[in-house]
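Q: What would this chain look like folded?
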Amino acid sequence: MKKFILSGAVIVAFIAYIWHAHSEQNAATVTVPTSLQPQNATSSGPPAGSAASANSYKDGSYTGNSADAFYGNIQVKVTVSGGKITDVTFLDYPSDRGTSVRINQQAMPMLKQEAIQAQSAQVDGVSGATDTSQAFIQSLTSALNQAKA
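A: My prediction, written as structure tokens:
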């Protein structure tokens, strides 16, 4: 029986390789939240009692607090018109790493659309973009707290 002796450097390099391969694989996997999937054509708006029908905001633009998304910060500005969220703009987001760029190119439009559809910060996180999703929700919540009527 042969014995293999691995140096600490080889073990660390192997673990780093596996970790990198796993994180790259997960970063490329982004799923569409159920709230962004096609709805029944007979639906005429949000269900009674939903967050969208309960919220009314003061018109204006409100900047949320910056929130940590692990590789950088997320900060959003929400625009309210007619008491409803009409736009969400990303003022800051992680963009200095290739993985962050790929994740945010996919996640940011989904999060924006979902917030406008939900008319609140109660949105589904985007799979593969957990840190971005959580930071988005935090920043959007702080902006909407300023906009409460």
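The longest strand covers residues 73-81.
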